[in-house]
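worker-3 :: picked Mannose-1-phosphate guanylyltransferase
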Amino acid sequence: MKLILLSGGSGKRLWPLSNDARSKQFLRVLENEQGELVSMVQRVWNQLDACGLSESSLIATGQSQVEIMRSQVGADVPLIIEPERRDTFPAIALAATYLYSIEGVSLDEVITILPVDPYVDNMFFDTVKSMEMALQESDADIALIGVEPTYPSSKYGYIIPSGETTETGLRKVSRFQEKPTEEYAEQLIAENALWNCGVFAFKLGYLISLLEEKGLPIQYEQFLKQYDRLPKISFDYEVVEQAKNIIALPYTGYWKDLGTWNTLTEEMSSVQIGRGIISEDCVNTHLVNETNVPVTILGMKDVVVAVSPDGILVSDKASSPRLKELVNFDQGPMYEERQWGWVVVLDDQKYEDGRCVLTKRIGLQEGKNLSYQSHTDREEVWTVVKGEGEFVLNGNMMRVRAGNVLHIPVKALHSIRAVKDLEVIVVQTGFNAQNDQIVELFHSWEEIEQNCMKI
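worker-3 :: tokens ->
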């Protein structure tokens, strides 16, 4: 069995911590067994590793998430990279063509699709493992995992069984219902309906045949070339709901979608992360603060306060699911996690004479480096404020430390490596910032050293 984890998301439901470059699965707000803060994707990947599934797993993600994904789960985790977001059908189809034409996976191999961010206990993955046998024994087109509902939720989709079962006790599926009212959900539960947790499996040959029927390429490189012309549609609508023979495996353990602030805070081990004060008379109130600005909360009930470089949210927890409908700020991410460290935008100004000035603080982890690069339309001034490093400018390499100020002219080739954890204030200035391009020559420090000389 091959397991494909889907990692997407627009970064709106858990704003302001999440953004276009760091959607919800990357937020380090959950606690592991060692008391360390981890993200949803780190938690799930560790569970896959503990259950013996990580070796057969791949992650399908977008180009904007590659650096943060590798930073959080490791550079060796195999990624299938979407050139742009086009919903789950194109993403899964792209992964299928990769497995078929690049990896040479058999058409009889079972492919299981799993969201990258479910909040479950380890026994959930025992059910995931059993999907392969269930699909083989039932000869179904698609197998699903359905969670036994604990209450009539209007937040989840439902799998409605036909009433028939297979010889091994699997439920045959009649139809699906998207997010019903609570009243209708009660009726569906009476019909033994299950929550749809977005986990399903099929044989690779099933999807490859569907792609051929739709006139789509089954070779990865050809499929990639047509990716921007594919319809933006979910796999559920395009494939699952059209299938004739579907079975569901009931799961009775713990499962939750941590997609909104009210559900996420229920699983946080502490009511406060970051700098601030929550008064003792506050009830069911959480603070998550990623800045150095202190936040004080007094006498509040059922409230979440989230603060990041991207903005500030103060919300009643029950109202927080409405956030996605409201947040549409015209700004790029103000905080990004990179493979080599992190970036915080401190100021972004455009002046009447056409100058654009961007000020940011970057942190590089010990041993990590930026690529050897140049900018076509901006110059930079770097002020080293912490740590020690090696700096390269147009082939000349020198040691730098806190207090050094470095000037990088337009089109000058440059890079830096952290000998000790390094922080730098970067001021970028240009008259054509929108059209500025980054030209990268080398990525590894070994390549840079081979082609530069030390002073």
